[in-house]
Amino acid sequence: MNGARALIETLEALGVDLVFGYPGGAILPVYDALVDSSLRHILTRHEQASAFAADAYARANGRVGVCIATSGPGATNLITGIANAYIDSVPMVVITGQVPTSVMGTDAFQEVDIFGMTMSVVKHSFLVRDADDIPRIVTEAFQIAASGRPGPVLIDLPKDVANAEVTVRPTALSAEPVDPPAPTAEAIAKANELLAAARRPVLYVGGGVVLGRAIEPLRDFAERTGIPTVGTLKGLGALPTEHPQFLGMLGMHGTKAANLAVQGSDLLICVGARFDDRATGNLKGFAPDAAVIHLDVDAAEIGKLRKAQAAVLGDLRSSLPRLGSPGDIEGWQGYCQDLKQTHRVHYDAPGPAIHAPRLLREISMAGGDDLIVTCDVGQHQMWAAQHCRIDHPARHLSSSGLGAMGYGLPAAIGAQLACPDAAVVAVSGDGSIMINIQELVTMRRYDLPIKIVLLDNSMLGLVRQWQDLFHDQRRSEVDLSDNPDFAAVARSMGIEAFAVDTADEVPDAIERLFATEGPVLAHVRIDSTAQVWPLVPPGASNAVMLDGA
Amino acid sequence: MSHTIEIVVDLREGALVRMLGLIERRGFMPLGIATRPGREAGTLNVALNVETKGMPRSVQVLKRHLRKLHEVRDVFAPAESVPKVRAPEPVAC
Questions:
Q1: Which of A98, A238, B44, B64 is such that its CA lies 20 to 30 A from the CA of A394?
Q2: DSSP track, A245-309
Q3: CB B61 to CB A304 under 8 A?
Q4: pTM of the model
Q5: What angle do CA A232, A389, A414 make, to 5 degrees?
Q6: What is the ipTM of this complex?
Q7: A341: number of Cβ within 10 Å
Q8: Other CB atoms closer than 10 Å to residue B2's CB: what's the count?
């Protein structure tokens, strides 16, 4: 058995059944070994899409995503996807071919130092020098990727090592993630002291809740205490967005209710979030009167940006049930409900133009309980976050930290393969969809019944919005009025497509989307001047929200 | 402000580069570095003198970041009276 075969057998032994990838020269031995393997390989049409699809596969079903590419350009094309998984803490194992060890360091054909290039965007990385190490390294990679705060792990495999004979058989392997430790009694006691004294607490929930498999303890805590709750982009759905206690997303495009509640709070209970600048706005002005209880599995997040008066480090499943309750917060709860009511969204935009927020909300309501929404990046991404019904973070897949345009279509592929029975809607924009539009072919190739909602404003809409608001309307390279006929492009790749131009066509369009058995694209033309509101200007406090009024 | 950090690290491919890259990326400039073999075979003791670049950053937070590296076995950093944590100014973009 050679190294490549050992790699594939190790993946099989670890329970992997599906990988995403794109073949090439240095990774040929691995693709040769795949021929006799039980692994299902999904051929994307660009390596970046392989990485994004593996990322979404992991987010949707909680398993480790796997992607494979060759050396040189194959490997470099993965980097955006690796960075995306790193910033959003997604468990992923990335396997790259490398030129033979004898020519490494000689600028050989398709040689790049992917091990060095990716150091700052991986949780860990391995360069395999000895084929006998392959079973151990692959097992370690899976364990590292999934343990604690998850993240991507790179395995760079030189071609000669892949071809070398191995003497160690990959049997009886286990890469069970290591559970994080429980928090200390002292930390819990300090947190409970702060909780008992709080009169205006807010629960600030991030993506760490789903990564830590702590959705149920989080919901139990929220409902037991009745504390008003806000979520980050990645935390949406930890408490269902329709839950009465949920005030909305906080931050730059958060709801007024969420931001005003946070600003007025006397205690922030931060669960699996990291005080990201998109959530906090100007950090000095963020929740200025609040003490902080910070619950996280990653010690490096605590005190990184905001001092925590109580640092509860460890497994959220252990810490959340041990938290007590605040004092009398009835008045505060009423105030927060008033905020929610006063600043509720209105979906009754007049005129024949399609109101994107309403469209997205109606799609999310029509899609059923298991609906998964994947997003690209831009205005449509923020509208989806603001207006879609989201019942679980694993059903709202968005490139949150990196903000990588091009995520939406490959993410939908990963999500649909992870959850074959779920309806998957990919929300994209006319800018974003062009980044990975070739993946329409992948959807057709594997007959994935993904519903694509393309919101086309013939603009890089969010950039245009910022140029209008913060650059004196000096529009620079945002006009996309020379877009192709997207429906025709989709049809050329075997995807059913139709146009939606006016609001009165929307009900039929939604019905058609969900009634179509295969992949389908709705090309929705929207007003090119539509804005995302509210908006906290860059550098401002979250108390300063523009709303277009 | 400068600090001396001592790190015990496994001698694996890329370990030093990974460590130094993290230190720089997290806002510290290495001013001096001294290494000697660790007590255990295959380990290295690294003494680093680092200085915060630009905004003050917490050396304790840096220590916790370093501890997350898989080659790093231990990190010793001077205790800070109060971690100097400040808002990035201006906000990124």
A1: B64
A2: TEEEE-STT--HHHHHHHHH-SEEEEES----HHHHBSGGGSSTT-EEEEEES-GGGTTTSS--S
A3: yes
A4: 0.96
A5: 75
A6: 0.87
A7: 9
A8: 12
> Under an 8 A CB cutoff, do A300 and B64 touch?
yes
Amino acid at A178: V
pLDDT digits (tens, 9 = 90+) for A132-170: 999 999 999 999 999 999 999 999 999 999 999 999 887
**Interchain proximity A300–B65, CB inside 8 Å:** yes
Q: Exposed/middle/buried for B8, CB within 10 Å: 0-12, 13-18, 19+?
A: middle
Distance CA A280, CA A286 (A): 6
Give pLDDT tens digits for A211-245.
Answer: 999 999 999 999 999 999 999 999 999 999 999 99
- A351-354 long-range Cβ contacts below 8 angstroms, 24+ apart: A351/A503, A352/A502, A352/A503, A352/A504, A353/A502, A353/A503, A353/A526, A353/A527, A354/A500, A354/A501, A354/A502, A354/A503, A354/A506, A354/A524, A354/A525, A354/A526, A354/A527
Residue in chain B closest to A540 (alpha carbons) equals B91
B92 touching A (Cβ < 8 Å):
yes
A395-414: b or e for each residue (b if 16 or more CB lie within 10 Å)? bbbbbbbbbbbbbbbbbbbb
B91 in contact with A at a CB cutoff of 8 Å? yes
Rounded Cα distance, A184 and A148, in Å:
17
DSSP state letter for A225? H
β-strand pairing of B28-37 with B43-52 = antiparallel
As a whole number of Å, the end-to-end CA separation of chain A is: 69
Pairing of strands A267-271, A291-296: parallel
Those residues whose C-beta lies under 8 Å from the C-beta of residue B7, and which sit 6 or more positions away, are B19, B45, B46, B47, B48, B66, B72, B74, B75, B76
Between the CA of residue A56 and those of A100, A366, A375, what are the distances in Å? 32, 22, 11
